[in-house]
Structures are given as C-alpha cells and as structure tokens.
UniProtKB/TrEMBL annotation, chains A, B:
Transmembrane segments: none annotated. This is TetR family transcriptional regulator. Coiled coil: none annotated. One of its GO terms (molecular function) is DNA-binding transcription factor activity. It comes from Streptomyces caatingaensis. The lineage of its organism: Bacteria, Bacillati, Actinomycetota, Actinomycetes, Kitasatosporales. Residues 40-59 bind DNA. InterPro entries: DNA-bd_HTH_TetR-type_CS, Homeodomain-like_sf, HTH-type_TetR-like_transc_reg, HTH_TetR.
Amino acid sequence: MTTGETATTGLRERKKQRTRQALSDAAIALFLEHGFDRVSVADVAAAADVSKPTLFRYFPAKEDLALHRIADHQGEAARVVRDRPDGRSPLAALRAHFHARLDAHDPVTGLSDHPGVRAFHDMLYTTPSLLARLVRYASRDEELLAEALGGPAPVARLAAAQIVTVHQRLAQENWRKLVSGRPVTDVLPEAHADADLAYDLLGTGLDGHFEG
Amino acid sequence: MTTGETATTGLRERKKQRTRQALSDAAIALFLEHGFDRVSVADVAAAADVSKPTLFRYFPAKEDLALHRIADHQGEAARVVRDRPDGRSPLAALRAHFHARLDAHDPVTGLSDHPGVRAFHDMLYTTPSLLARLVRYASRDEELLAEALGGPAPVARLAAAQIVTVHQRLAQENWRKLVSGRPVTDVLPEAHADADLAYDLLGTGLDGHFEG
DNA sequence: GAAAGAATTGTTACTCGGTTGCACTTTTGG
DNA sequence: CCAAAAGTGCAACCGAGTAACAATTCTTTC
C-alpha cells in the first residue's frame, strides 16, 4: 500500500506515460525545428530513446505524434452544447464559447501569441498530411456534436457539419491574418467580428446575402 | 513554333493519352476487384505495362489513380453559380442543379444504380486515404465557389464552405441508405427531400431548429 | 522474497509508396 | 538523315509502417 488515494498508478503505467510524453516532446521539438517532413520517425524514436516499433505502439501514425494534443480536445463542441445553461440555445452557447476561446488566445481559434504555438500552426496549415489527419479528427467531432444537438438526425447532422466547418474556416482566417505579419492585438477585434458574422450567418441563413 | 491550332494531336501526345488511360483503367479494375489497399502500385504498373516511375509521372499519388475522374469534375459548383440565369440566386441555382444531378443518378450525389459505381463508392467511403484526398479536391472546389459567389470575402468564403460541406453530407447520407440495401428508386424521393431540407437550412438558417 | 505469468520492449527483416540518377529509345524538327 | 528533346525502363534508394521472435521488465501469487 502506497500512500494516498490517487489509486496505485502502478510503476508500469507510469513508465508508459513517461515514454509517451518523451516521444511527444521529442517529436514536437524536432518537427518545429526542422519541419514535419524533414524529420523521420526514426529520428524521433532515437531522440526519445526507443525503437521504431515501440514508437508506433504509442502513436499509430507519424501525424499523431504532432496532433495528439489537439486530438485530446475532441468532443469540445459537443460538451459545450450539452453543458449549456438552461434556456440558452446550442448556437448561442457555441458562439459565446468561441468568443471566450478567442479571448484566451486558444490555439484552436488560430489566434496565438506564443512563437511556439505560432510555429506549430504554420506547420499544421502547410503540411497536407497533417491537415488530412485533422479532418479525420474533425469528423469525429462532428458526429459527437450532432448527437449532442439532438432533434431529427438529418437536421442535426447537417447543422453539426456546418458548425464544425465554420469553426475551421474562422481559425484558418485568423491564422491567415497572423501569417501576413499583423500582431495578435490588432487581429483580435476582427476575429470577434468574423465570429459574430459567421454565427449570424449560421443562425439566419444565407438568404439575404446572395440575391439574383 | 508548332503547327497551328490545337489540331495535330501529335503522335507523342496520343501515346501519352493512351498510357494514361491504360493506367487508370487497370487501376480501377484492380481496385474494384481486390480493394484499394490490397493492390500495390507495382501491380497497377505491371497491368498497364509500364514501370513504376512512369506510373508516378502520370499520377502523383496512388489515390489519384482512383480519383482523377472525380477530380476532373472540379469547379462544378462555381460553374453553376456563374452560369445561372439572370435573376436567380446562387443558392437557388445550386439547389436546382443538385436536384437535377439526383435525377440523373450522378455519382457525385451518392446515388447510383450501376454496380460498378456502387462498388466505387463503397471503396471511396471506406478507404481513409481516398477520403482524405477527396477532401483536398473539395477545398479547391470551395475556393472556386467562393470566388464565383462574389461579395465580401469573409461571407463568400463561409458560404462556400457551408455549401460544399452540405453537398458532401447529402451524398454521404444517400450512400449510407444504399449501403443498407435499399433500392435506388426507394431512396430517390428521400434524397430530394433531404436536399430541400438542407437548402432550406442553408437559406434560412439554423435559428428555429435548436432552441433553448 | 522467489518463481510463474503477463506485458513491454528491441532487433531484424520485410512490404509498400514514392523518388532519384542514368542509360536507352522514341519522337520531333530541320 | 541527324541532333535535340521528350519519355521510358532499370536499379537502387528513402521513409512509413508491420511482423516475428527473443529478451527484458513488471506484476502476481505463494
């Protein structure tokens, strides 16, 4: 019996956590320094002092070495909808949450000060295979959101698809503005405005915007 | 200076066309028979009587062997918007076009009788790497559509993203119904109804559908 | 605390997608 | 007919990912 409550983590379990962490850290450091596809998985494995097969026992693909942190965010939209206060619509909850994430400079919004995070985003948006993997994560997110939205399945699925897509585009737009060299403080107000625009569009539809 | 107009195909050019066709045909036949990832590019090259490097001179990646026909459809949404009759809104034009494609059992709608096309769709939707490639094609489509829509860039981009996404989901839903064994004639009316629902949603927004 | 048992790891070797360098053949243009 | 250009095949290579099996490390049980 060891001390305390935190459940006996078990030595083996702790070692696995450490290996996983070492792999992730080594990978991200190397990727940011040399670029995703100029670093081989063998390099990463060597840097973390494990063999290549072991690396793949922890991360099913090279892309996951870079993305697993994002992957852990999965189901966030669904959670926001599920945990919204009584009387608030899902859309309103999501809008508020996105604004909050914006103010927190959350990486998922595409806005971010830290040079490390910036470099990470640059890598993300300029590496096709990472983008592809991100899409797969997003589609899982979409499923969960559709479920959380409830209502008739076709409507919920369409709505979820639109919402997830819009989030992606908002983040992409923010990133684009940062890439052009503008400081975050300058872009933030526009990001809020874009988000409002996007949610207005989601809420009231495209109909007044593109007439004959 | 080459000879005049587009006329003289040139022997060399004709040979290239034939090689390209042979590769595509061999690839699709093999993929449909054995499954995309149980066929190696070496197999395809051998079946088309070319070497592996030559194959990659024609198709930049294995996925393109399966998808280049779809790729050729690119910019269709943008074209529909650009060529719409006077006084008709882009959304109305796209809606009408989608219904027409549905009646034509166009593969892009996910509906289709031909067993060959059905098998192709099954392969598409169950092979992650193909889906990923498809997403990349779609994002090009989205760009072109945004351009065709005109208006303020942020709005156009958001609208284009939503429209493209909705098309994908409609096609996916149709395919899902076919997979469950139902005949096309049975699914078609629902497909039209889903399309109308989706376009209504796009036009008038999500706002009445998910209240507090 | 030691032995039986399970889980994890390293090594080696392999498959497959994709690329490179170079020699060889074919088409083209004069 | 000849030379430049374009296209091809060959062989060797790189990197991602997997399989087999032996060696090691943790857990469990007595």
